[in-house]
User: What shape does this take?
Amino acid sequence: MDIGIVGLGKMGANMAVRLIRAGHRVVGTTRSPETVQSLAAEEGMVPAFSLSELVAALAAPRAVWVMVPAGQATEDVIKELTGLLAPDDIILDGGNTYYKDDIRRAEGLGANGIHYIDVGTSGGIWGLAEGYSLMIGGGVEQVARLRPIFETLAPAHDQGWGHVGPTGAGHFVKMVHNGIEYGLMQAYAEGFEIMSAKTALGLDLHQVAQIWRHGSVVRSWLLDLAANALAEDPRLAGIAGWVADSGEGRWTVFEAVDLDVPAPVLTLALQQRFISRQDESFAAKLLAALRNQFGGHEVKRVE
Assistant: This one.
């Protein structure tokens, strides 16, 4: 099946590779010609060096998956694609877009006969090997048309993906997913900080993480990644306790307020990230290390 991918960063490139290796024809473009050339030479991706080249290389009706940073970059790509695509073509946004922007975009594209699908995508840098969790919003017919793509990107054809509702629903669910992620990460970070502070016992935090990974009720993929980070640097001495947030946690808290839904854990987890930018702490270091482990997000290094 034909699919175009705009944006070949870590996740976009891995998605392209997973699709190509499953037999799909992928046309890809990104700002770096070297990346395009490399994926073409090493994986067989069809190279495109502009959006117009990408659209021309796809068979109609076209499907173009946008994997560029949420915000103005995505807006600019979709605006340019609107002038290049034809009625019944589909644009998919797999970035961390605010769901209300999805609804607005779908209405604008619909006036031109172009369909829009929002795909909340989780899996980070591990998706190539493990598959991606896909939370999909959009029209029933359009989602069904691209089912082979979703089945290939997911961990299995019948696991880890689903059409969760109309336009905006995919990114809404991904937003809440990331809010929950904040809370889980904060709980691990605080627990490990308590153990780190109990110096009299001389605890090996990597050993503890390894024990908990098997059989305990708190085992999870995040704990696996914590163990990885602690194996690399048991005291996390090389990581600054400064933790970024990419927006979804804030949006989740805003929705909780708007809906009169109490969400104290998620709200406090978000606030802890703000605190991390002012005060150094082991908990913040572990949060930063976890984001690096599962998503390849940059960490601030201690000089």
